[in-house]
Design brief:
By secondary structure, the chain is an alpha/beta fold. It folds into two domains: about 170 residues, Rossmann fold; about 70 residues, no CATH class. It contains eight helices and twelve strands. The strands form three sheets. The protein has a seven-stranded mixed sheet, sandwiched between helices. Strands 5-2-7 form a three-stranded antiparallel sheet, covered by helices on one side. The longest helix has 18 residues. It is globular, with a radius of gyration of 19 Å. It starts with a strand and ends in a 12-residue tail after the last helix. The N terminus and C terminus are likely disordered.
Length: about 250
Amino acid sequence: MSDAARIDRGSDPALLRCERLQVGHSGRALVPALDLELRAGEFVAVVGRNGTGKTTWFRTVLGLLAPVSGRVIARPGLRLSYVPQRIQLDPLYPALARDVVAMGVERGLSFISPRLREPALVHGALERAGAMAYAERPFRSLSEGQKQRVLLARLCVAAPELALLDEPTSAMDAVAEREALSMIDGLRREQATSVLVVSHYLGLVREFAERVVLFDSACETVLVGPTDEVLAHAVFQRNYPRPGGDACETH
């Protein structure tokens, strides 16, 4: 298997494609080139230790950073939503939690879908995300875990074709993180949303993700493939060792 290892290659039309994409800073790549196709309705998890380039890769895919090399190709008109680890609003802007969710509705408004439907959509999304109890509270006053629930509710009403989530459950307890990923998976199934999520919770990655992208800067390796295959790979075992695990050996 090569340094930029690819374990499988799907044939479905891609929503977004990374072609020999290298990401990094000041022209220096953090990991080898990555090839990846994101297809409609699939759940892909991104794993790796801190500092391996996961968030840098996300920001490059979103167009916030220029690639070191290679390119990102998105389908024209692709509806994309991003849920960051944290969101900052101007402290002088008195947005309530429901106002933040309503920001996701704007994209779906049209002549035949008027604003009269907005309260019902926002209410339903808040209920689904378990955030209804603080719908009328200022967003800035919420805990980080509560803010993430509000952002997940906004994701629901935005109905994107592709959702990118960077550690969406990092401020949640074990029960809440399972609820959140179950909700995200439900959204994927109901709306054929393609989900790309950075997560450190490997049990939930194994449960929900169909494919995994593993970043390992120490071994200068990127793995892309079915969840069971990547999690059984020697490079993954090095990052999350079991007794007898080896270092940078590859299959």
